Amino acid sequence: MNYYHVGKIVNTHGIRGEVKVMVTTDFPEERFAQGKQLIILKDNKPIKVTVEKARMHKGMELIKFAEFDSINDVQTFRDCFLAVTEADQAELAEGEYYYHQIIGLEVVTLEGRKLGTIKEILAPGANDVWVVERPKQSDLLLPVIDDVIKKIDLDAGRVEVELLEGLE
User: Fold this and answer.
1) How far apart are CA 45 and CA 73, in angstroms?
2) Which helix (H) or strand (E) element contains residue 74?
């Protein structure tokens, strides 16, 4: 079963079993809504939990799971990831992709020259940046803008790009 991270438990909060979660999803309102099912990945073993309540506090999501009522119950989950299954992923609009769909794609120029494989996605600000691992060269940083990214073909496992001056 594939699991996709939506947050990381960084600490406990209070004594009633709440945890502080660093959010890594674009859909926190949906993911952490009351009654939603999540998976805690502890020692590579999935633990199914249900969100009893959640709220934002100082840039973190505070979540109380229905299954746990005490700090003693949740303190072992520190540094564990919260995840969802593939079936629980939200539908995206046309032209939008999950990171896991993009990472691993082969990158080629419009002329057909192979550049490498996308190994990481950075989100520094206005647009994402794809890190392309190139054989026997330093990594290439591609801004995800229409002038550079020309075609994404998930079925073929490749991305066609036009390298602007100064990118390579």
Assistant:
1) 17
2) helix 71-74
